[in-house]
Amino acid sequence: MTVRRVTADDHDGWAALFAGYREFYQLPDDPAAVATTWSWVVGEQHGMTGLVAEARDGSLVGLAHVRTFARPSIGSVGLFLDDLFTDPAARRSGVGAALLRAVSDLAAQRGASVVRWITAADNVTARALYDELGAQTPWVTYDMVPQRY
Questions:
Q1: Is 87 helix (H, G, I), strand (E, B) or coil?
Q2: C-alpha angle 121/36/38, rounded to 5°?
Q3: How do residues 76-125 score in pLDDT, each as one tens digit?
Q4: In CATH, what number does 2-133 get?
């Protein structure tokens, strides 16, 4: 298996993996959101970089989407892992770990001080891997819907 940056030729394989990711998180079918995400990933827009894990036969078996973020409190940047997904048929074969290690390498190349991500509390399988390669933080995440006051 090889982990590399996504290319325009990866569209179909990436789209199948991203569909699996969206299904896992029970996101509704949204072709516009998928097309927008593809344009960001393949075009490296908004600081976004797409990585894919490619099996020996050339099929894509995993993806990771990362982006740079500022860390003003320490005058540094970090890399945020937005999405990580492994094809169910390839799980427990090292794909997730390989993608996370590639993300770590990319962060080091960019001089980032941290790789950060969030996951669902009940994502037990992924969390077992995350506990091996990262450290859970004490921070609580919030979302707020933008509106004018």
A1: coil
A2: 80
A3: 999 999 999 999 999 989 999 999 999 999 999 999 999 999 999 999 99
A4: 3.40.630.30
Q: To which H or E segment does residue 11 belong? A: helix 11-24
pLDDT band at 43 (very low <50, low <70, confident <90, very high): very high
Do 3 and 104 meet the contact criterion of CB atoms below 8 Å apart?
no
Report which DSSP code applies to 140.
-
Return d(Cα 109, Cα 20) in angstroms, integer: 30
Whether 112 and 68 have beta carbons less than 8 Å apart is answered as: yes
Q: Domain spans of the chain?
A: 2-133
Q: Copy the structure tokens of residue 119.
A: 């996951």
CA 96/CA 148 separation, integer angstroms:
40
Q: What is the pTM of this model?
A: 0.93
